[in-house]
């Protein structure tokens, strides 16, 4: 209901696209045998993971299991020690840096909300907006009516219309979370990596977020990391449990919830 | 567009207005009236203002990289000096055989150090268009190479600041060397003509001032257009959260490079305008302390505002002119005290004060109104 | 002056004149104008206290203008030196005899040669015997007897002596027409071999020397940077007045020496705590008066401290005049440790190197072992949270800034021993100091140490090939390129936190 | 009240304040004294002091300010050559007068500048003559700071030494940057260069601040004046007063004035200085004497011309004579340089010099060195018919300022 | 224990807290609720002294703290767990914990109490790791642990469950309850000869003293579990309060949904 108005056709119009994403064989994201270590500590340990096109995947796991690190690997922030990471069949993400990966259509919301404090809410969204992001076109860029409308739609979605002209620096924690989600929407990504979207949100806002994410699936492949089980339950189809840097188990919510190992390391009770 | 931009529009307009008035009035006054007219300004005033305006342009250039892109360049003077040297070389070549040794090709300092031929890098500087090109290209190229290396390797913060300082320091030492062929410590002096016009004539001085003023205005307009463009916002975003911008798909290093090179070229232009008006260019322009002073002008005026640095540069240099004449023995006390007081009392620079008093905007300001991350 | 030279020669023949000659050499010999009489003097409150030259009996006190000093020139000085050496050859103290022998050996004339060989017979001290033999064996090279010469060449090749080197070179040289100066092939070949042996040793000594030069330059860099490593590296304050704090330390040394004019060594040692206090207190005043209002606005500290630096410069100009001030080096800091003719290490540099390491260790201990160390870093990383944890940030800030400033002052004491004490002292070091801290990695004290020594040695290794200026340029370019490879210095802060 | 203004253009802050502040005080003293004598042309003199802050473009700006705003009759100022070069176009454009009191590299003669310091032939050449003839020096180190004055001086000296038969391998030339402070290698090299048994000397054109660490290092590495004397052209009493002179004793300097010279004029001058500056320990030095001579020559010229008009003073001052402090009578030459005695002194433990040699008559300052091929044919003569600062005697052409 | 009266706070010209009154009794566990941006964090910061208040009083244990430095408040035993964790990123976990020792030292605590590692074992494992390198959840645990070093009488927690895995969330809940109901750190098992009235008395006093807790929390379930009172803010004002059990759907609808 929300996304239909804000998210336009994506994919075909990517100007910076390094090539069509080939997902004919199913998965759009491939991670195989990925290892990351920090000063000897293995944050990701022979991790393999496949995400299908259009899928909404929930990712849970204890604190420090490596979920954020996984996103760091996919978005190019952290280079793994070994393993392979492919976007579609053809794009080797390990060869690309962060902006190049973003340009292929992989976007991310950070665990700690990170918005641009000095820019207004509006400008934050505008910056994120899908567009030609090279220097000269950016310099000569003019916003057209359609783009304007899109920004306003997203502002509505994230309920920040009234604050649109304020610097983002004055937003409260929860408002920043919303703004980041808005920025994600503006980017029209193929793959969305959403790290703990609902931290600091009220119960009702959580519901709205769930609705939003559900409406986006199908068009976008989404990975959501969250510790709020109620929320996860409300959106989950397939859930992956990460533990000590590798996949502990994968399955439907019910399967996972009843897995004794998951209960032991994560859910408790 | 947004409210706070309107808030800065007023002083901006005022700055533009005053600059325009000054740059038109003084030169036109001098060109059109007799020397005893009230509208006729002495060569002293004209070249003084010319110098201030060149410095203002230099400060503006630094504000672009520092105020907006957050790159604290401690070597901006290097680009200024390079532009200045390019212009100086042209002016030297213009002396021709009127030098003290009458050598038609070689500048005097080369003659008495027994240089036999003009070094290759001096070739072409007899042509003004080529010189004009080099005024932009020499600093631009240096900025391009240096910036490309540094930004690509993600050198940021103080590390970047200090290596820009190292850069200008290295250039200082290099230009001091007489073997470099730039006149060593004495630099380039004794200029006579620009485009065939006598540099000492009143009209040429007035015209130089006019050109400087118009360049400054032009640069201010372009800079404002840039910072209000989306590129300007990307650059501001980079200042606050560089890594986040990458994940939005922008090539941070290219944006930084763009603004860095543009700013270096502006600085080069400032240098080129400065040299014919003060009559000398010497390696001390490369000294790290000079570059530091530019930072001070920007900070005093208010960084991240474009017009603030212009006013800062003019104020500080005017203060210097006055104080070195009025309190020659103790003026450093007063200047030092001014720096301390401005920092303590006027966190947004002099312009912050003016802005708050005159336009008492309740809107937070783009740079310092928000707690820094 | 020529008359004086003759007089010295004449005096040299009489043992009793030693006092007079020494007084003359030390600049204590004056002429009492009214009586045209030579006296030695001692400074007293009202002028000079006169003493009889020979007996040393006190005579009277006169005004300064009543006496005129007997001036010396280089020529007189060298005659004097010889004359005194001749007379001292028979002193009882072997150390004095050794110096006398060495003095005579500097340029040996026939007279000295006879004197020395005579002396050798009666000499009991082995060191002195050796020294004399060395002089004599060199002379043997000029002997008429070929076998003696061959033997001499063989003996000298083990000596690390410049005189030997010069002599051997003349044995292997050609004259203008390309004929060898030395007609005897065998001697020449032997000399050649000996020469190459000595030269190999010289190369090794030169390498040691270069490393020492580098370390001592490095020590100066480290000393000047280490206070900044705290105020800038740890606290994040861009302290442009750092150089001026060093300057204050140097001026403290000057003042201490004024207070204790006759004990420059004691004054120097006392200057260390004094300079620490002076600079430290000024630092605390700067922090309490200015910087504390600027936390969270690091760039503004640059502006304010730049103002402070101008102020301090002008302050010393007003108090001490714009001229350089003369700081003396105590005797134990002067001269060098002469290992042999080809290697000597200057004492002042050696002491400064040691001093630098001491200061560094002390500082490291303070930051590691005391609570202050932890609290400083906590405050620097998150001031508000530090407050919320109960850390008295104001006190920590003042103490830390005071500590960094105090160390700058101590560095100033060291600098006073090698360079100008003047109002510009600070500016000469500020750029280098920042460079060292950044090159080492901000916030890493150990990095500062390694960076300082690295840059020092790099500079000194390059200098012989490139010259002083080019070497410095090359080092700067090296820093610029190095930072590309390691964007956070030699010892970067690692991990997630450092990335943003 | 009607006064005659005199501009004093010396740096009071920045790197050059160390040297120049004293000259500012000297000027104030001289002006003060002249006023006590009744002023000039019946008017009081008024000093206008500004601070060009060791910043070269600021020198030009301040010169312009003095001439345009304050309308000074003459400017006494500058120290470094580059500051003079910066001021030069301004005084020429505004037809002012500049009295420049420091020894310099020559190769210049402006209608508007009077060079009261030494030209190379009044300092460097006699110094080398002394070393060669009296000390029998055979090997030469020419060490200098890398700027025009040392470069030019050393070029002149190199040419001169070679003309005297010194081989190239016996000359070592070394340049260091301003404020160079780490002399370990260079001193070690000098030591090696001088240890071959041939008498070696260092001719130092090392400037200002670099000298203290240089001499410290010399002392510590055991180079004494007896083995390798250093003769300096930029180290005077004032520089010595900031040094620990113990290790320097016996090293040399060549100047046109020493404080220790025992003449009644000098004693009076020193007394006057001590009274004025209220510090009996302050020393006097060569550039002070240059200002003393220059100022008094200007006064005489103004009196002679009856006006302070620069044009008239320029004409009147040529040929004006004034007794210098060391015994001779200096004269303003047509090339705007003056005649001076050349003294060589050895440093004493108290920071004073003992004169060990001196020219028996005054030496005329030569603007264009005879030892540089390009300058040899050039002369300066500001009297008619030549009236030019660089007149080529071969081509009979005038270049530079009065280029036609 | 804590009494706020007529508190006013502004960010520049914008009025964030309006005339706020709040009372916390010893042993209370109060949950502050409200939508995003209504001023909850602001209020906690004001209590901690991290932002100045323009007017009103903050009385803690009878002392007016409204102008006191944050350091003083920490020394008096107010522990603060900020939103967003605010770990010292370059200090190791151990050093992070040690930062509280100066203030704690005033009340006799010289070393990091072992009980903290019992509550959060992960901290013991990562003692030498830089705080900034920890995962989000690990940092949150560190932040709570750090506040506990002060052995606080009043513990302020700003959304402490944010980003924490479920089993730890419930543990944190238990911890809060335990701290609140009893004075946190369990006493060592007494030696047999000590068992007696004195020991009993100490235990009783401690239990009665309990840590007072002021909590901001959005997760209803969690809030219901740990808190015994609630308090709702809207646009800088207190609009409702009561016992946790009294928090009903209408109130939730009215104040907590958008
Ligand atoms: N740069 C680093 N240096 C050292 N250890 C690191 C670094 N980055 C991450 N780690 C460690 O790697 C592990 C995985 O961290 P990560 O942030 O991926 O966890 P997570 O699954 O996102 O946890 P959470 O749910 O708490 O956010 C953690 O134990 C963390 O301490
Ligand atoms: N530094 C600031 N300057 C101006 N306004 C601010 C500042 N910080 C916060 N605000 C505003 O004050 C209001 C209250 O913010 P606060 O952080 O206290 O909200 P909150 O109730 O904690 O929200 P959340 O649940 O999202 O954390 C918000 O509307 C916010 O925009
Ligand atoms: N002229 C000089 N000494 O610079
Ligand atoms: Mg995470
Ligand atoms: Mg909050």
UniProtKB/TrEMBL annotation, chain A:
Gene3D superfamilies: P-loop containing nucleotide triphosphate hydrolases. GO terms for molecular function: ATP binding; ATP hydrolysis activity. The keyword Nucleotide-binding applies. The keyword Coiled coil does not apply. Residues 29-269 form the ABC transporter domain. GO terms for cellular component: plasma membrane. Keywords: ATP-binding, Nucleotide-binding, Transport. InterPro entries: ABC_AA/LPS_Transport, ABC_transporter-like_ATP-bd, ABC_transptr_urea_ATP-bd_UrtD, BCA_ABC_TP_C, P-loop_NTPase. CDD domains: ABC_Mj1267_LivG_branched. PANTHER family: CONSERVED COMPONENT OF ABC TRANSPORTER FOR NATURAL AMINO ACIDS-RELATED, HIGH-AFFINITY BRANCHED-CHAIN AMINO ACID TRANSPORT ATP-BINDING PROTEIN. NCBIfam families: urea_trans_UrtD (TIGR03411). This is Urea ABC transporter ATP-binding protein UrtD.
From TrEMBL, chain B:
The chain crosses the membrane at residues 12-32, 39-60, 66-87, 128-151, 158-176, 203-223, 254-274, 294-318, 330-354. GO terms for cellular component: plasma membrane. It is found in: Cell inner membrane. Keywords: Cell membrane, Membrane, Transmembrane, Transmembrane helix. GO terms for molecular function: branched-chain amino acid transmembrane transporter activity. It comes from the Bacteria. This is Urea ABC transporter permease subunit UrtC. It is a multi-pass membrane protein. The lineage of its organism: Bacteria, Pseudomonadati, Pseudomonadota, Gammaproteobacteria, Methylococcales. InterPro entries: ABC_transp_permease, ABC_transptr_urea_perm_UrtC, LivM-like.
TrEMBL record, chain C:
Belongs to the binding-protein-dependent transport system permease family. LivHM subfamily. InterPro entries: ABC_transp_permease, ABC_UrtB_bac, ARM-like, BCAA_transport_permease. It is a multi-pass membrane protein. It is found in: Cell inner membrane. It comes from Methylomonas paludis. The chain crosses the membrane at residues 211-238, 266-286, 298-316, 350-367, 434-458, 464-483. GO terms for cellular component: plasma membrane. Keywords: Amino-acid transport, Cell membrane, Membrane, Transmembrane, Transmembrane helix, Transport. This is Urea ABC transporter permease subunit UrtB. The gene is urtB. Its main location: membrane.
From TrEMBL, chain E:
Keywords: Amino-acid transport, ATP-binding, Nucleotide-binding, Transport. GO terms for molecular function: ATP binding; ATP hydrolysis activity; branched-chain amino acid transmembrane transporter activity. SUPFAM superfamilies: P-loop containing nucleoside triphosphate hydrolases. The keyword Transport applies. GO terms for biological process: L-amino acid transport. Residues 2-258 form the ABC transporter domain. Belongs to the ABC transporter superfamily. This is ABC transporter ATP-binding protein. It comes from Methylomonas paludis.
């Amino acid at each position: 209901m929300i996304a239909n108005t804000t998210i336009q056709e994506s994919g075909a119009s990517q100007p910076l696209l390094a090539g069509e994403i080939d997902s004919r064989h199913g998965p759009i994201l491939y991670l195989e045998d990925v290892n990351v270590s920090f000063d000897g500590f293995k944050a990701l340990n022979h991790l393999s993971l496949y995400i299908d096109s259009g899928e909404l995947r929930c990712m849970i796991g204890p604190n420090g299991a490596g979920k954020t690190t996984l996103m760091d690997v996919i978005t190019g922030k952290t280079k793994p020690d070994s393993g392979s990471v492919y976007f579609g069949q053809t794009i080797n993400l390990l060869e690309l840096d962060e902006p190049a990966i973003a340009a292929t259509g992989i976007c991310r919301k950070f665990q700690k909300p990170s918005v641009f404090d000095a820019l207004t809410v509006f400008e934050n969204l505008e910056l994120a907006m899908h567009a030609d992001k090279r220097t000269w076109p950016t310099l000569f860029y003019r916003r057209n009516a359609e783009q304007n409308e899109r920004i306003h739609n997203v502002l509505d979605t994230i309920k920040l219309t009234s604050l649109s002209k304020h610097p983002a620096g004055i937003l409260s924690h929860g408002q920043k979370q919303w703004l980041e989600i808005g920025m994600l929407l503006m980017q029209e990504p193929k793959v969305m990596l959403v790290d703990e979207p609902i931290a600091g949100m009220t119960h009702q806002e959580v519901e709205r977020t769930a609705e939003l994410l559900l409406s986006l699936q199908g068009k976008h492949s989404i990975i959501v990391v969250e510790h709020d089980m109620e929320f996860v339950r409300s959106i989950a189809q397939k859930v992956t449990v990460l533990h000590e840097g590798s996949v502990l188990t994968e399955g439907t919510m019910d399967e996972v919830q009843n897995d004794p190992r998951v209960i032991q390391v994560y859910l408790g009770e | 567009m947004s409210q706070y931009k309107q808030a800065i529009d007023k002083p901006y307009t005022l700055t533009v207005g005053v600059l325009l008035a000054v740059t038109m009035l003084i030169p036109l006054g001098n060109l059109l009236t007799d020397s005893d007219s009230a509208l006729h300004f002495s060569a002293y005033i004209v070249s003084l203002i010319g110098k201030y305006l060149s410095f203002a342009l230099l400060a503006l250039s630094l504000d672009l990289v520092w105020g907006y892109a957050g790159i604290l360049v401690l070597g901006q003077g290097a680009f200024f000096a390079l532009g200045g040297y390019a212009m100086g070389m042209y002016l030297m070549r213009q002396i021709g055989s009127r030098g003290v040794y009458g050598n038609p090709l070689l500048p005097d300092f080369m003659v008495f150090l027994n240089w036999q031929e003009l070094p290759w890098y001096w070739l072409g500087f007899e042509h003004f268009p080529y010189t004009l090109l080099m005024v932009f290209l020499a600093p631009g190229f240096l900025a391009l190479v240096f910036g490309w290396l540094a930004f690509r390797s993600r050198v940021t913060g103080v590390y970047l600041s200090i290596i820009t300082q190292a850069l200008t320091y290295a250039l200082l030492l290099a230009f001091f060397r007489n073997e470099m062929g730039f006149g060593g410590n004495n630099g380039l002096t004794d200029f006579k003509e620009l485009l065939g016009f006598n540099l000492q004539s009143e009209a040429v001085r007035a015209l130089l001032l006019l050109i400087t003023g118009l360049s400054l205005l032009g640069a201010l307009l372009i800079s404002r257009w840039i910072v209000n463009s989306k590129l300007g916002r990307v650059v501001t975003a980079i200042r606050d959260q560089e890594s986040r911008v990458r994940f939005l798909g922008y090539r941070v290093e290219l944006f930084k490079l763009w603004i860095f090179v543009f700013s270096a070229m502006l600085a080069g232009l400032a240098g080129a305008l400065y040299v014919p008006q003060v009559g000398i260019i010497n390696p001390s322009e490369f000294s790290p302390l000079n570059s530091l002073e530019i930072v001070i002008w920007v900070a005093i005026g208010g960084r991240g505002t474009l017009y603030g640095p212009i006013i800062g540069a003019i104020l500080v240099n005017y203060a210097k002119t006055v104080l070195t004449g009025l309190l020659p023995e103790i003026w450093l006390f007063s200047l030092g005290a001014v720096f301390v007081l401005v920092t303590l009392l006027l966190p947004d620079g002099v312009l912050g004060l003016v802005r708050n008093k005159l336009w008492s905007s309740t809107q937070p300001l783009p740079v310092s109104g928000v707690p820094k991350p | 002056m020529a008359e004086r030279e003759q007089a010295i020669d004449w005096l040299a023949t009489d043992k009793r004149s030693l006092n007079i000659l020494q007084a003359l050499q030390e600049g204590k010999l004056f002429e009492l104008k009214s009586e045209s009489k030579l006296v030695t003097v001692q400074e007293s409150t009202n002028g000079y206290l006169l003493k009889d030259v020979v007996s040393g009996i006190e005579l009277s006190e006169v005004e300064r203008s009543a006496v005129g000093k007997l001036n010396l020139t280089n020529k007189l000085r060298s005659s004097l030196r010889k004359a005194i050496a001749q007379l001292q050859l028979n002193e009882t103290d072997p150390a004095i005899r050794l110096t006398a022998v060495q003095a005579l050996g500097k340029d040996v004339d026939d007279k000295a040669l006879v004197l020395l060989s005579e002396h050798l017979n009666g000499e009991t001290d082995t060191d002195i015997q050796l020294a004399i033999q060395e002089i004599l064996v060199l002379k043997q090279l000029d002997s008429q007897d070929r076998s003696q010469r061959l033997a001499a060449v063989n003996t000298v090749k083990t000596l690390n002596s410049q005189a030997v080197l010069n002599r051997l070179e003349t044995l292997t040289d050609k004259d203008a027409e390309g004929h060898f100066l030395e007609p005897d092939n065998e001697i020449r070949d032997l000399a050649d071999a000996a020469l190459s042996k000595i030269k190999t040793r010289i190369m090794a000594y030169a390498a040691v020397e270069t490393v020492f030069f580098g370390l001592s330059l490095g020590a100066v860099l480290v000393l000047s940077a280490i206070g900044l490593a705290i105020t800038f590296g740890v606290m994040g304050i861009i302290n442009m007045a750092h150089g001026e704090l060093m300057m204050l330390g140097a001026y403290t040394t000057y003042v201490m020496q004024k207070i204790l004019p006759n004990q420059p060594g004691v004054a120097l040692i006392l200057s260390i705590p004094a300079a620490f206090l002076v600079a430290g207190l000024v630092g605390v005043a700067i922090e309490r008066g200015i910087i504390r209002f600027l936390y969270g606005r690091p760039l503004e500290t640059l502006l304010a401290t730049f103002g402070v630096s101008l102020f301090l410069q002008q302050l010393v100009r007003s108090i001490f005049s714009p001229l350089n001030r003369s700081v003396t080096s105590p005797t134990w800091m002067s001269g060098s440790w002469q290992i042999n003719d080809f290697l000597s290490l200057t004492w002042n540099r050696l002491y400064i190197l040691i001093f630098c390491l001491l200061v560094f260790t002390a500082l490291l201990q303070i930051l590691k072992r005391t609570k202050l160390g932890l609290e400083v870093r906590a405050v620097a990383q998150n001031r508000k949270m530090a407050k919320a944890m109960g850390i008295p940030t104001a006190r920590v800030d003042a103490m830390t800034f005071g500590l960094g400033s105090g160390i700058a002052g101590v560095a100033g004491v060291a600098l006073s021993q090698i360079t100008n004490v003047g109002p510009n002292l600070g500016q000469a070091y500020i750029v280098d100091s920042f460079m060292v801290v950044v090159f080492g990695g901000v916030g890493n004290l150990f990095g500062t140490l390694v960076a300082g020594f690295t840059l020092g040695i790099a500079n000194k290794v390059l200098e012989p090939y490139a010259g002083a200026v080019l070497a410095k340029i090359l080092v700067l370019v090296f820093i610029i390129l190095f930072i590309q490879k390691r964007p956070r210095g030699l010892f970067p802060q690692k991990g997630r936190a450092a990335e943003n | 009240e009607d006064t005659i203004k005199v501009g004093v253009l010396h740096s009071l802050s920045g790197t050059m304040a160390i040297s120049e502040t004293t000259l500012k005080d000297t000027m104030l003293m001289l002006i003060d004294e002249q006023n006590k004598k009744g002023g000039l042309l019946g008017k009081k003199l008024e000093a206008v002091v500004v601070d060009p802050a060791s910043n070269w473009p600021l020198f030009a700006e301040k010169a312009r300010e003095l001439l345009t705003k304050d309308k000074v009759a003459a400017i006494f100022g500058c120290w470094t050559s580059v500051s003079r070069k910066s001021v030069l176009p301004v005084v020429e454009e505004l037809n002012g007068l500049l009295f420049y009191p420091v020894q310099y590299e020559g190769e210049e003669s402006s209608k508007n500048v009077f060079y009261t310091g030494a030209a190379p032939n009044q300092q460097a050449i006699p110094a080398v003559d002394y070393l060669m003839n009296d000390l029998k020096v055979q090997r030469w180190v020419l060490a200098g700071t890398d700027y025009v004055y040392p470069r030019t001086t050393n070029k002149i000296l190199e040419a001169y030494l070679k003309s005297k038969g010194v081989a190239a391998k016996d000359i070592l030339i070394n340049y260091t940057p301003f404020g160079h402070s780490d002399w370990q290698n260079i001193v070690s090299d000098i030591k090696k260069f001088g240890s071959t048994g041939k008498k070696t000397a260092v001719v130092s054109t090392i400037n200002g601040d670099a000298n203290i660490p240089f001499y410290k290092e010399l002392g510590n590495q055991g180079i004494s004046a007896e083995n390798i004397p250093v003769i300096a052209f930029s180290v005077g009493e004032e520089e010595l007063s900031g040094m620990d002179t113990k290790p320097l004793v016996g090293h040399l300097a060549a100047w046109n004035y020493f404080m220790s010279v025992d003449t009644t004029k000098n004693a009076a001058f020193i007394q006057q200085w001590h009274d004025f500056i209220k510090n009996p320990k302050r020393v006097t030095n060569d550039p002070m004497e240059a200002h003393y001579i220059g100022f008094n020559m200007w006064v005489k010229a103004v009196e002679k011309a009856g006006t302070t008009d620069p044009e008239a003073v320029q004409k009147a001052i040529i040929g004006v004579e004034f007794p210098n402090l060391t015994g001779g009578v200096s004269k303003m030459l047509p090339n705007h340089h003056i005649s001076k005695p050349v003294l060589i002194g050895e440093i004493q433990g108290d920071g004073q010099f003992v004169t060990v040699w001196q020219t028996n008559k005054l030496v005329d300052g030569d603007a264009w060195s005879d030892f540089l091929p390009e300058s040899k044919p050039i002369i300066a003569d500001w009297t008619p018919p030549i009236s030019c600062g660089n007149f080529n005697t071969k081509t009979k052409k005038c270049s530079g300022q009065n280029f036609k | 224990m804590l009494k706020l009266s007529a508190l006013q706070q502004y960010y520049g010209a914008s009025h964030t807290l309006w005339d706020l009154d709040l009372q916390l009794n010893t042993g209370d566990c109060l949950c502050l609720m409200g939508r995003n941006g209504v001023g909850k964090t602001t209020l906690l910061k004001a209590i901690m002294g991290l932002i100045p208040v323009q007017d009103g009083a903050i009385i803690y244990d009878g002392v007016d703290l409204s102008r006191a430095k944050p350091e003083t408040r920490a020394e008096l035993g107010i522990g603060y767990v900020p939103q967003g964790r605010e770990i010292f990123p370059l200090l190791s976990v151990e050093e992070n914990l040690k930062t509280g020792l100066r203030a704690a030292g005033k009340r006799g605590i010289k070393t990091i109490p072992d009980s903290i590692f019992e509550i959060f074992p992960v901290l013991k494992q990562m003692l030498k790791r830089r705080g900034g390198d920890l995962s989000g959840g690990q940092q949150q645990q560190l932040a709570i642990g750090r506040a506990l070093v002060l052995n606080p009488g009043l513990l302020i927690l700003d959304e402490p469950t944010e980003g924490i895995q479920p089993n730890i969330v419930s543990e944190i809940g238990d911890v809060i309850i335990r701290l609140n109901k009893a004075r946190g750190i369990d006493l060592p098992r007494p030696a047999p000869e000590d068992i007696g009235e004195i020991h009993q008395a100490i235990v009783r006093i401690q239990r009665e003293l309990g840590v007072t807790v002021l909590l901001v929390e959005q997760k209803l379930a969690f809030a219901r579990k740990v808190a015994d009172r609630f308090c709702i803010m809207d646009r800088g004002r207190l609009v409702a309060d009561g016992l946790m059990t009294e928090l009903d759907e209408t109130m939730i609808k009215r104040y907590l949904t958008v």
